[in-house]
Write a structure and sequence with these properties.
Layout lengths: L3 E7 L5 H11 L4 E7 L4 H10 L11 H10 L8 E5 L5 H10 L3 E4 L7 H14 L3 E3 L7 H11 L6 E9 L13 H6 L2 H4 L4 H17 L3 E9 L10 E8 L4 E7 L10 E6 L3 E5 L5 E5 L6 E4 L7 H5 L11 H21 L5 H4 L4 H18 L6 E2 L4
Parallel strand pairs: 1-2, 1-3, 3-4, 4-5, 6-9
Antiparallel strand pairs: 6-10, 7-8, 7-14, 8-9, 10-11, 11-12, 12-13
Length: 385
């Protein structure tokens, strides 16, 4: 089979996440990068494309030109989907242009700058019938999928408590004043939206809580703050959660926990037991029981379920991490494209990729967390769109 052809908007020289996306897309040999508009600076875009060994005519000065030019190419040459790896404010314009030009979209999170754009995007995806995926990377880890499967089949009993935390320390001081591009745009409301911490990492935590537990947040109570003086957007937050079915939860996210790296961790407790997974030790899943010893499950083990196994590439004891988790989402999306073009049913692995519904829920969470923090009302219902 021919490789799935990918274009990219953003991710030029000096952009961390663009390199991650390209490596993840390439891991399984299913996807090839064929074109891109890598920067709003035309010269930087051209340099980036040249460094990636793309032909000059497939390196574009802006995304609008890219969509028009790619759509005019023969079907067997043009890109089939675009990966969006820009700051948040450009996610919707690029996605809209791609969908209207007939291309599938795989976007970095959060989906859009605000909820209104996310709702417009949902309508556009339905209107065009094209595919939309969202890179909530942590869903891609095999043992996260194993945790979800064990909860869904009732191993823990009815879920009572979900605790998810995501502490980082990289913004504990004013990195935005040092020329740090990643800090500058994430703390700029015009580029990031109404939240930094919740918009950047809190939304990952909320998505992970819903994905693993199989439950949806029904209401929340929020307390956000900016600890570093002079910031317009939050750099820390705590959110109490209520889920459909009666479970309760706690979500803590912070970018100012000095000394922390990327400490995403989730614990879920049911009537009969609990489980725990941490992103910095992703190849281990802990199962906890009141009447027998704690169990340690390892990635690659033959005792894992079919979905975890399908998302594992190496034998037990050969660690897989962030890039492979990212690659699992790219593989799932590529599978969706192949199934769509062949008009065949999706397999379980390909179906397991965040999409437009998760995109809307993510933006709803961000805006509701900010609104709740600014309100004297304690509990705020989670709207269903």
């Amino acid at each position: 089979m021919a490789k799935i052809r990918m274009g990219m908007v953003g991710g030029g020289e000096g952009a961390f996440i663009g390199t991650i996306h390209r490596m993840a897309a390439a891991i399984d040999g299913e996807i090839e990068l064929v074109c891109g508009a890598f920067s709003s600076d035309p010269a930087r875009s051209q340099r980036s494309g040249a460094a990636l060994h793309l032909p000059a005519e497939r390196v574009y000065t802006d995304f609008q030109t890219m969509m028009t030019a790619e759509a005019a190419l023969p079907p067997e040459l043009r890109m089939q989907f675009v990966a969006i790896v820009t700051p948040n404010h450009m996610h919707f314009p690029v996605a809209e242009a791609a969908l209207r030009a007939g291309f599938h979209v795989l976007s970095d999170k959060p989906a859009t700058l605000n909820l209104n754009e996310a709702l417009q995007l949902k309508e556009l995806v339905a209107e065009t019938g094209l595919l939309y995926g969202l890179t909530h990377t942590y869903n891609g880890y095999p043992l996260v999928k194993e945790a979800r499967e064990r909860i869904s089949r009732g191993d823990l009993g009815k879920v009572r408590k979900v605790v998810v935390e995501y502490p980082q320390g990289w913004l504990a001081d004013r990195q935005e004043d040092t020329g740090n591009k990643q800090a500058s745009w994430r703390l700029d409301p015009k580029q990031a939206g109404i939240s930094s911490c919740m918009g950047d990492i809190g939304v990952h935590a909320s998505n992970l809580a819903e994905y693993v537990s199989g439950l949806q947040i029904s209401s929340l109570c929020s307390d956000l703050t900016a600890f570093v003086e002079g910031r317009e957007l939050d750099d820390d937050g705590s959110v109490l959660l209520r889920f459909d079915g009666g479970a309760r939860g706690v979500l803590h996210a912070s970018q100012v926990c000095a000394g922390e790296e990327n400490g995403l961790r989730i614990r879920v407790y049911g009537e009969h037991g609990g489980l725990e997974w941490a992103q910095q030790e992703p190849n281990t899943l802990w199962l906890k029981w009141p009447d027998r010893p704690t169990e340690m499950l390892r990635a690659g083990g033959g005792y894992l379920g079919a979905l975890a196994a399908a998302n594992t590439r190496t034998p037990m004891g050969h660690p897989e991490g962030y890039l492979e988790a990212f690659a699992n989402l790219y593989m799932a999306f590529a599978g969706q494209i192949r199934a769509s073009e062949a008009d065949i049913p999706l397999d379980a692995r390909s179906a397991d990729c965040p999409g437009i519904d998760e995109a809307v829920r993510g933006m709803t969470f961000i805006e509701l967390a900010v609104a709740a923090s600014n309100s004297d009302v304690k509990w705020h219902p989670f709207p269903k769109h």
